[in-house]
């Protein structure tokens, strides 16, 4: 398996494990010695990430994260995902996420994201995913 494929598997397992309700395991298995966060509303470090996931799951216990695409180049892995906070609720169709992860030695050490609400109506029939 190439390093790129391995890095993609690490990110998918990390992301799904965390948002399926076990961020402690995701951090223990997949975080490197540091975790730098570039989202201006999030703090650096594993404790902040764990706290955020617990908060989000507390607010939206049925949330679902569906990774639609994953791309890897060098030490970066990018995911395009649908975060559905309230599955089945047409008034809250969720968010489109683009997450960028940097890995060192197969571990997640840095994160950037772009978040956009999924609109109820679009100007085209293409969809966001």
TrEMBL record:
Superkingdom field: Bacteria
One annotated GO biological process: polyketide metabolic process
InterPro entries associated with the record: Cyclase_SnoaL-like, NTF2-like_dom_sf
Protein's UniProt name: Predicted SnoaL-like aldol condensation-catalyzing enzyme
């Amino acid at each position: 398996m190439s390093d790129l494929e391995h890095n993609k598997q690490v990110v998918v397992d990390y992301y799904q494990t965390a948002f399926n309700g076990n961020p402690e395991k995701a951090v223990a298995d997949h975080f490197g010695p540091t975790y730098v966060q570039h989202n201006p509303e999030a703090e650096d470090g594993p404790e902040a990430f764990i706290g955020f996931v617990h908060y989000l799951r507390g607010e939206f216990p049925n949330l679902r994260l569906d990774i639609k695409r994953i791309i890897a180049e060098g030490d970066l892995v990018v995911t395009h995902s649908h975060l559905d906070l309230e599955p089945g609720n047409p008034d809250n169709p969720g968010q489109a996420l683009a997450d960028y992860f940097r890995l060192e030695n197969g571990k997640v050490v840095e994160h950037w994201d772009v978040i956009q609400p999924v609109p109820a109506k679009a100007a085209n029939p293409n969809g966001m995913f």
